[in-house]
Amino acid sequence: MIQPRKEVALLIETSNEYARGLLDGVVRYMEEYQRWSIFLPEQGRGATPPKWLKQWNGDGIIARVETPEIAAALKPLNIPIVDVSAARLMPELPWVETDDKAISQMAVEHLLQRGFAHFAFCGDSTFAWSKLREKFFVEALAAHGHGCHVLDLPTGEDGKNSTPKNVQKLDRWIERLPQPIGIMACFDIRGQLLLEACRELEIDVPRQVAVIGVDNDRLLCDLCSPPLSSVIPDSRRTGFEAAKLLDQMMKGQTPKEMKKLIPPLGIATRRSTDVLATEDPLVGMAMQFIREHACDGINVGDVLKAVDSTRRILEYRFKQITGQTPHEAIVHQRLDKVRQLLHDTDLSIGDIADRAGFEHVEYMSATFRKKTGLSPTAYRRKVQPN
């Protein structure tokens, strides 16, 4: 006898890249394990609960509980619910969420590697995840002995980001910041607003101000001028794990983990941070050579020849400014290329190793696993849709 499908509502907006990644993760779970009948209202972030929810007699819900209205609508329902928001408006619910601490630490590492001595964060206190990213960004910088300038630009009541008040506030803030400076935007839309302000103020990006966002909304990032670098959250995995958790609950099982943080995948580096902010010409030339040739199979000896320096002098000055050795910088550039090729292509692992400048596939795989915790094949399964 054919069992009826479970009815599951997805109260997740479809208006941004992160939320669409969550939905894709749910779809991937259903394709692998369990088919459901899905109810997905078309809504934006912060939208009111769908009217049919009060009379709905389904089996489970995955929701972004980011407003009191959504929380109030869900509280009376006596069915399994999984929250995929950082707001924690219903702390009694099990949740799966992106790891904001890891996101902020990754952004700090990215900006430190570019030699910045001044840092800033542009956030939106409307959202709990923005406040968390600000907190962790400031803490990570403090651990390296750096301070941080902070600006809060709350989303307007109409849901708009570029209100005249916000634009004026942002312009005044940017003009007062020391330069050169690396700025983390709480998400890509804030990053876009920062880049627009810099363009209007005739500030050179990334030489005077470098900007990194979060979400890697490709269309938005590529349309920015210059294109916006962005931390890549693993939203597909977040949606997949939320679906897995809900499935267990609907089957009457008690999951081992009722709260789960999903680390980010990496950083998509674009022109908005493609700079080395240092007055040391030796380190600047070395980093430029590494960025241009890391995937050509170079070693530290090739870098020394290109910049005409001894190993001891270069390694000391390079480490002082970037926090890593030239060899580590070469490997970092190659691993970024590996991530990009695993995400964007169907090339074999051997071909990827060759294009990223690794002589041996085994060494690439071991290095990649050490850095990410995953083999290249496992990483590809995570980031590429079926």
SSE series: EHEEHEEHEHEHEHEHEHEEHHHHHHH
Count structural domains: 3
What is the number of strand segments? 12
Helix content: 40-55%
What's the main sheet like? 6 strands, mixed
- Count of alpha and pi helical runs: 15
CATH architecture title of the largest domain: 3-Layer(aba) Sandwich
Protein name: Xylose operon regulatory protein
Organism: Bremerella volcania
Keywords: DNA-binding, Transcription, Transcription regulation
GO molecular function: DNA-binding transcription factor activity; transcription cis-regulatory region binding
Describe the model.
By secondary structure, this protein is of the alpha/beta class. The chain has three domains: 6-98 and 235-262, Response regulator (Rossmann fold), CATH 3.40.50; 100-233 and 267-273, 3-Layer(aba) Sandwich (Rossmann fold), CATH 3.40.50.2300; 281-383, Arc Repressor Mutant, subunit A. The chain contains 15 helices and twelve strands. The strands form three sheets. A six-stranded mixed β-sheet has the order 7-6-8-9-10-12, with helices on both faces. The chain has a four-stranded parallel β-sheet with strand order 2-1-3-4, with helices on one face. A two-stranded parallel ribbon has the order 5-11. Helix 1 links the parallel strand 1 and strand 2. Helix 5 (164-176) crosses helix 6 and helix 12 (326-344) packs across helix 15 (376-383). The chain is globular.
